[in-house]
Specification:
ABC transporter involved in vitamin B12 uptake, BtuC; 80% helix
Length: 393
């Protein structure tokens, strides 16, 4: 081979090598650029995703929000209860009444005790509903499940029928006495008697299923006896109807003092045994393994439930759906342990009943709707809406 030819071949090899090196470098640069672009796009996508999805709301924040809402709505409802009178919701008339001579009578003896009484009755029903749902571990349990409603109704009917059959003339004074003293005591004793009959039929509080069935049987039996009494004494039917519809019209300051004391006592005892309800949610076997005396604790909780329900029913009659809906609303919007659930259900029940009481006075003035009818309509619509949403989902 000639030297020029060899030199030319070597030069060509060098050029080819350099070209290959340059191509490799360019390819590496392009790969790095593509990787950097992909990384930047991934970071941007992650940033956009992080910005678009809000952080989850904790249960503690939900509880704080619910407390704020209950306080705001409760204060507005109390103010509306003082403003609403026989003419409906009338702020101008309220201002004129404040400047009148009967301001103390209208506000101090009629509207204020009625509004505060509705608050306490709703709190007792909400507390009873939370206890009932905790004992039976069923979100559809209500405070009237153990025969309290039927027992209270029977007690009222017996008092009215006894007064009628004994030949007493039902004058205004006698009717007032029956409304304020006789019917209250009869309803309270009847409600407690219904629960005692349920416990005796179920042989204690050993099994919740047997206790539930016994409550249903007692409710049907006492309701039938009440209907039989009204057949014998038709004059008692009107009083029974008024009691079944519920009313806050006859609440006074002595009744408020009694309900406030009962709420503090029963609520304190219920909060003291809130951890027992938390253990029951795990199941009877798990609760027993934790050292919980199921029979004693369940019996105590049933007594607290009966006391709260009997106290509320004896003062305002049968107010429907408050004890069922109040714990359900709390559990749906701000779940938590039973210590929180008991207190929040009492507050929710108080707010619901005050709002219902204001609506019962403001819808068709000067007439009033029974507050139990208003709560039944509102509670029924809420449950229907909830059922429809769950059915669609």
């Amino acid at each position: 081979m000639n030297p020029p030819t060899a030199f030319t071949g070597a030069a060509n090899v060098a050029v080819a090598t350099a070209t290959a090196t340059t191509a490799a470098a360019a390819s590496a640069t392009a790969t790095a650029a593509a990787t950097a672009t992909a990384t930047t796009a991934a970071v941007t996508t992650a940033a956009v995703t992080t910005t678009a999805v809000p952080p989850p709301v904790s249960d503690r924040q939900r509880r704080r929000r619910l407390v704020a809402v209950l306080l705001a709505v409760g204060l507005l409802a109390l103010l509306a209860g003082l403003v609403t009178g026989s003419g409906g919701f009338a702020p101008r008339d309220f201002w004129a009444e404040l400047q009148g001579e009967q301001a103390g009578l209208i506000l101090g003896q009629i509207r204020a005790p009625r509004t505060l009484g509705a608050l306490l009755v709703g709190a007792l029903l909400g507390l009873g509903g939370a206890l009932s749902q905790g004992v039976f571990r069923n979100p559809l349990a209500d405070p009237y499940l153990l025969g309290t409603a039927a027992g209270a109704g029977l007690g009222v009917v017996l008092v009215l029928a006894g007064a009628s059959l004994s030949g007493l003339a039902i004058s205004l004074a006698t009717a007032a006495w029956l409304e304020r003293v006789g019917l209250v005591v009869a309803a309270f004793v009847g409600a407690l008697g219904g629960v005692l009959l349920t416990l005796s039929l179920a042989q204690g509080a050993v099994q919740t299923l047997r206790l539930l069935l016994a409550g249903v049987v007692v409710g049907v039996l006492l309701g039938a006896v009440s209907d039989l009494v009204t057949v014998v004494s038709p004059d008692a039917l009107r009083g029974k109807q008024a009691f079944l519809l519920g009313s806050t019209s006859f609440l006074g300051w002595p009744a408020l003092a009694l309900m406030a004391g009962g709420l503090l006592l029963l609520g304190g005892l219920a909060l003291r045994h809130a951890r027992a309800l938390d253990a029951l949610t795990l199941g009877e076997d798990s609760a027993a393994s934790l050292g919980l005396d199921l029979v004693r604790v369940r019996l105590l909780l049933v007594v607290l439930l009966a006391g709260a329900t009997a106290l509320a029913v004896s003062q305002a009659g049968l107010v429907a759906f408050v004890g069922l809906v109040a714990p359900h609303l709390v559990r749906r919007h701000a779940p938590g342990p039973h210590a929180w659930l008991l207190a929040a259900s009492a507050a929710m029940g108080a707010v619901l009943l005050v709002v219902a009481d204001v609506l019962s006075r403001a819808l068709i003035p000067p007439q009033e709707l029974p507050v139990g009818v208003v709560t039944a309509v509102l509670g029924g619509f809420y449950l229907l809406l909830l059922l429809k949403r769950r059915g669609l989902s």
